[in-house]
TrEMBL record:
Residues 5-165 form the ATPase of the ABC class N-terminal domain. Residues 176-434 form the ATPase of the ABC class C-terminal domain. It comes from the Bacteria. Residues 470-568 form the MRB1590-like C-terminal domain. This is ABC-ATPase domain-containing protein. Pfam families: ABC_ATPase (PF09818), ABC_N (PF20446), MRB1590_C (PF21117). The lineage of its organism: Bacteria, Bacillati, Actinomycetota, Coriobacteriia, Coriobacteriales. It comes from Enorma phocaeensis.
């Protein structure tokens, strides 16, 4: 490996030359306690910044092995080190000045969730790798090598030294993060063992400061579990932790408007992810396969069997293999339900605020006027019991407006001024007073939905031979790959733009390698590709030989959502 002195020499040699001479710096340099790699060099000062990585050797980083010997603890340590590094980097950026992105130093800045991210990796033996972007400085197009010297020899290494070496403060926060990760892992395991689909710890803060903030709302009413749903989890570090356990089956969340129903559901839908200490939702834990299902009119649907919900469409289209470029509210929600089950979910999360009413319920008066044989939809309320009883898929449904789901429910939670009450008994009484019988398990054990879908074939688009397809992402809204795109604005469980960036690269790989050949399910394609990334690392989906920062590992469910929403542009129009 070249040394830091070689790098210094190369820098001196290109000072004052044209910008492309920076390309000669590409490579890895031994700096003693760490190695610095220039992985990719930008083409000009205004282009996307260069990529640099630092590998702090295990002896220098010196975190005790028990902080990274299990996967969940290693992920927690990576997350913590990245947060520390990002804080240092924010201070160092633009100390150096010049044209375009000169002097920029940037890395991933995590939100409240803990993700596996390409920006930081702790290796099996304890070395710490961080990846960052650096704007190589220039005046006009003339290389300012002295300024880059300052970035590479002073600014970036001191960020790494301050953030990634195990001093007393780093050790204390790393231990706290590892303990939290242990407790979360135990809580998740307990959930499964006790037949719960979710757990909300007492004292949790569910609402966020605003619709666009992920900070906890100040002065919020802390969560308090109703006695009858209370569960106590014995966590290794936190000790006995009480909270509301939501059992498997059909659960309703009812209550007046503005009483906190949607806030609870939102916390549950994000409870599939781990959250950092201080977030308020550290112990809001939802079955990791849970999927928020909603209506999404206008989306494309490709070959989904929505016949359990919808048959006899007026245009005669085959709902056993339903395809459209422009789904309606009800057909989109039917497709999303089937797709979620095909993607391996055990829990559907549904909010009336984001549902198509005609997909959810139909009342007797309407039935009297519009005869069943003129209505293509079997509403969800008629399927929800068999989903649970015959397929083991639980539902948590927010309903404020209709009691139609009452006879189907195993558990009914009322949110009243942000407090949860168990009103299951009361609902049973009301139902029996009015002669409404609880739903019998109908359908004779048929598997109603799912398990039959093959993902539609996704074409290769216009990629040049050997060249990766062009990938563009737009925050949380979606991405394009080659001449196709995915709209993710209604895929609500995506919370971090880095998930979308990773999804875009995953889709690029799926397309380039033609993994959806029309015979495999989306779940099969998504799960095996993600498993490959978990086993072999980010290089599996990196667009170049080097791994960039800025990717966060998504779930199988969201990758399936992308495959299911792929839209090929109507080329030329
Ligand atoms: P619903 O779905 O029942 O109509 P929301 O969940 O949308 O109600 O909540 C309504 C408002 O109450 C939101 O602005 C939310 O931030 C706020 N809110 C929710 N839970 C709490 C709480 N525990 N403490 C304080 N405010 C809350
Ligand atoms: Mg609501």
């Amino acid at each position: 490996m070249a040394t830091d002195e070689d790098l210094e020499r190369r820098l001196r040699a290109i000072d004052g030359r044209g910008y492309p001479a920076y390309k000669s710096l590409k490579g890895s340099y031994d700096f003693g306690p760490f190695a610095l790699s220039i992985d990719h060099v930008q083409g000009d000062p205004f282009a996307a910044p260069s990529q640099v990585s630092i590998c702090v050797h295990a002896e220098t980083a010196a975190f005790p092995p028990e902080l990274f010997d299990a996967l969940h603890r290693r992920v927690a340590l990576e997350d913590l080190l990245l947060r520390r590094f990002a804080a240092e980097v924010a201070r160092a950026s633009y100390v150096v000045r010049g044209s375009g992105k000169s002097g920029l130093i940037a890395t991933s800045v995590p939100g409240p969730e803990v993700f596996v991210r390409s920006a930081c990796e702790v290796t099996a033996d304890g070395a710490v790798i961080v990846r960052l972007e650096a704007g190589f400085p220039a005046h006009g197009r003339t290389i300012d090598a002295r300024a880059l010297d300052r970035m590479l020899f002073d600014l970036i290494p001191s960020c790494a030294e301050r953030a990634l070496v195990c001093d007393r403060a780093a050790l204390a926060s790393a231990r706290a993060a590892a303990d939290l990760a242990d407790d979360r892992a135990r809580a998740r395991a307990e959930l499964a063992r006790r037949g719960l689909v979710a757990f909300v710890a007492d004292g949790s803060i569910l609402p966020r400061a605003s619709g666009i903030s992920c900070r906890p709302l100040e002065g919020a009413v802390p969560f308090d579990s109703p006695q009858s749903l209370r569960a106590t989890l014995d966590l290794p570090h936190r000790g006995p932790t009480t909270g509301m356990g939501i059992p498997c089956g059909v659960t309703l969340v009812v209550g007046g408007g503005f009483h906190g129903k949607s806030t609870l559901l939102k916390a549950l839908q994000e409870g599939v992810y781990d959250h950092v200490g201080g977030d308020g939702r550290e112990f809001v834990i939802t079955d990791a396969t849970a999927v928020k299902v909603r209506s999404e009119d206008g989306r494309p649907v490709a070959g989904v069997d929505i016949s359990p919900f919808i048959t006899n469409l007026p245009d005669g289209s085959d709902t056993g293999r339903f395809s459209t470029l422009d789904a309606s509210g009800s057909t989109s929600q039917a497709a999303a339900t089937i797709e979620a089950i095909d993607a391996g979910t055990r829990v559907l999360l549904i909010d009336e605020d984001t549902s198509a009413t005609n997909f959810m319920v139909r009342d007797e008066l309407m039935e009297a006027v519009v005869a069943a044989d003129h209505e293509p939809i079997t509403p969800f309320v008629e399927r929800v019991r068999s989903l649970w009883e015959h397929q083991g898929v639980s539902c948590i449904i927010v309903v404020g407006s209709s009691g139609a789901f009452f006879p189907m429910a195993d558990t009914v939670i009322q949110m009243d001024r942000y407090r949860a009450h168990d009103v299951t008994k009361r609902v049973r009484e009301v139902c029996s007073e009015r002669g409404v019988v609880p739903a019998a398990s109908s359908d004779g054990g048929d598997v109603l939905v799912g398990g039959r879908g093959h993902a539609a074939r996704i074409g290769a688009g216009r990629g040049g031979a050997g060249k990766p397809l062009k990938v563009r992402t737009q925050g949380l809204d979606g991405f394009s790959v080659g001449n196709g795109s995915v709209d993710l604005r209604r895929v609500e469980q995506l919370v971090d733009p880095e998930q979308v960036r990773a999804l875009a690269q995953l889709m690029r790989v799926i397309i380039e390698r033609r993994l959806t050949d029309g015979t495999r399910s989306a779940q099969d394609v998504a799960a095996s590709l993600l498993e490959r990334v978990a086993r072999r690392g980010w290089k599996e989906i990196a667009p170049r030989a080097e791994v960039p920062c800025g990717l966060a590992l998504p779930r199988v469910q969201e990758l399936c959502a992308c495959i299911d929403r792929w839209r090929r542009d109507a080329g030329g129009i």
